[in-house]
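Tutorial, part two.
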Amino acid sequence: MGEKIICQNRKARHNYFIDEVLEAGLVLLGPEVKSLREGRGSLSDSYARVKRGEVFLYNMHITPYAYAHHMRLDPVRPRKLLLNKREIKRLIGKTEQKGYTLIPTKVYLTRGRVKVEIALAKGKRKYDKRKALKEKQLKKDMEEASKWGNY
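Running the prediction step on this input gives:
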């Protein structure tokens, strides 16, 4: 039984240098889990912060479950991430360094549990992004040339 990817942050690798990746649990309510099982989640513009010794995920949008009339939840409410104290202390030390931030890269289901992959990342400058795109294009051109070079 593998994992089912619910949503991904595709721009993360374009906008950030990713140093380290962690898996964290996510504190959710029943209708939110049902909505995520249907694939109704989005990580665009979301980020994580350490606050009073706990890690919270902000701006993750979970569309309200259509059949949950008894609960009306805010779709972008802050959600607590479940990590060990040792991991949280290490994240506090790293995020206090200049330029480091916590971003979610994907949300997935594994063994019936919703998990978030968060990355310790440093923001890219505009020239870094241009350089990465240029290298990607060169690599693509070289592969294409080698493919057509051998008739």
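The chain has a mean pLDDT of 85. In part three we will examine how such features are distributed along the chain.
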